[in-house]
Each structure stands twice: as C-alpha cells, then as structure tokens.
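In response to the reviewer comment on reproducibility (Comment 2.3), we provide here a single inverse folding case reported in full, input and output, so that an independent group could reproduce the run without further information from us. The structure tokens appear first.
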C-alpha cells in the first residue's frame, strides 16, 4: 500500500484572492466569491485555533461554520445561475450541474460530520474539497462570464454615448435647412 502523508491544517495554505485569475466582470458575483474565500479561510483559522476540537463548544462552532458556508454557497449559486441564464451563457447548464454536484458532495460531508463527532481530520478533508472545488469552478466556468460582462459593458457604453445620438436641436437645424433650400 502506498504511503499517504497525513494532511495537517499547517499544510493547507489560505486562499488568496487574485483579481486577474478569479474575476468574472460582475462585481456582486466577484464579491460573493471573495466572501467564499474568506469563509474557507475562516475554517482554516478555526482548525488552527481550536485546541480540542472534540469539546462540545468546538463541535458547535464547527457545525455553525459548516452550515453557514453551505447556506452562503446556495445563495451564491442561485445568483450565479440567474446571471448565466440571463446572459444566455453557453455554459449555463454545465454551471448548474456543477453546483448540483457540489451541493450533493457538501451534504454528504455535512451528514458525516454532523452524525458523529467532528474531527480535525474530517474538517481538513472538507476544507480540501471545498477549496479545490471552488478554485477549479471559478477558474474554469465562472470566469467565462467575462465575455458576457465585456459585451454588456460595450452595449451600455454604446447606449450612453451621447455623441452618437441626434441632438435635440437637430430638428430645428433641419427646419432651417429646409427653409433655406426653398428660398
């Protein structure tokens, strides 16, 4: 059997937000992604600061954090799926399927964690799953929204370019020109 190194919380690096790598072009979605990064980093801090994770009060904190992360993710998925749908994005179905897979896996972890005693090892496994999934999902799927955001921005800019709109005085100018031509 191959040797497997035990993963410790010290082996896990906190997530760092990188504008170039993770932005979608939609500020509210980017902010939610940033908050999810912060939530995962909070789980890492909890792992670091909990001296005895088997104590009932530590177990309660862990369950609270796990529940909050799940609720926040579900709300974020709703917002993101609406954006993919509104944009008629070609990856909207893939995005939704990935969210469903995430929720199923998250619920599997949550059930295991809340059914018995939560251990440091089980929280590390959850963290690794959440971090890996989030980074891959944002990098491969969510950042594809950049094209839609750029297109929407270009359309807004074109609509707001007042220099391309007829002047309110152009009607008067055309009347003046018609009178001059008639004379």
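Designed residues, in position order:
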């Amino acid at each position: 059997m191959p040797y497997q190194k035990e993963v410790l919380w010290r082996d896990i690096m906190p997530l760092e937000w990188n504008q170039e790598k993770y932005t979608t072009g939609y500020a509210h979605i980017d902010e939610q992604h940033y908050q999810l990064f912060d939530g995962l980093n909070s789980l890492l801090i909890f792992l670091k600061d909990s001296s005895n994770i088997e104590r009932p009060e530590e177990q309660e904190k862990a369950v609270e954090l796990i529940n909050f992360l799940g609720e926040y993710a579900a709300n974020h998925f709703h917002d993101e799926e609406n954006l993919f749908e509104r944009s008629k994005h070609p990856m909207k179905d893939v995005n939704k399927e990935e969210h469903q897979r995430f929720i199923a896996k998250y619920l599997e972890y949550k059930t295991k964690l809340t059914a018995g005693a939560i251990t440091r090892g089980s929280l590390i496994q959850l963290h690794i799953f959440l971090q890996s999934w989030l980074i891959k999902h944002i990098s491969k799927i969510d950042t594809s929204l950049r094209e839609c955001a750029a297109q929407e921005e270009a359309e807004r800019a074109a609509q707001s370019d007042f220099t391309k709109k007829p002047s309110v005085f152009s009607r008067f100018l055309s009347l003046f020109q018609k009178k001059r031509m008639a004379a």
